[in-house]
Amino acid sequence: MTGAVRKLSISVPPDVAERLEREPNASAFLVHAARALMRREALDAELAHQGVTVTEEGVARARAARAAVDVAWPAERYQAIRERVRQVAAGDEDPAGRVTAA
Amino acid sequence: MSDPDAPPVRLVLDRSALLAYLGGSVHVGETLHEVITDGVRFGVTAVAAAEAYAAVDDPKERAALRRLLALDACAVLATDGGSWQELAYWRGFTGRADLAATVLACLDHDAPILTGEARYGDDDLPVIRLPA
What we know:
- The complex is a heterodimer of chains A (102) and B (132).
- With 102 residues, chain A is mainly α.
- Chain A contains 4 helices and no strands.
- Chain A has helices at residues 14-21, 26-49, 56-72, 75-89.
- By secondary structure, chain B is α/β, with parallel strands linked by helices.
- The longest helix of chain B has 13 residues, at 97-109.
């Protein structure tokens, strides 16, 4: 966490206090959580401005679609196609051959 | 300016996804919402942003695009000059420079592309397709 900061005195319920006490840097933990919430609020305000109504079902569908791609494309597959294209682009291989990482 | 504490980019939007967003696509909205709820960010290459901006004339749509790209949840991504040969490869593959820049961002961040385009091949790249 960098930049200007303000010191606050806050009150939290016991379960939250116990969770914060397990953090080596409770301030950073709270900032991270607050920023995540702020990002979501800002996006949702923008979506509302666009007239887009997000539904739980739609978000679940989106989650499933992204999860399916993540399963099909582990980090090794990204790495494989990056390296293969670097070789082709550097002229090590016939550029006519289409690169695939399947 | 990149924030080292910023969450990783886990989804890349291309020009077609940006234009769908401006058209009020609920699929784009729900996908963005899901990504942010997951605690990560989405990215747009500067080239794709410029192409989308050039494709709209309506001042309201241009303002909406500027606001989307200014969100903390959105990373506007540079294309590294040292990657020009890979960019050239993907330019040949997709047929467009903005799509090529999007592919490079996708591969740099291990993040699938949200798109309505059919130019990314058939299972050659990680793509989440928008409904036609």
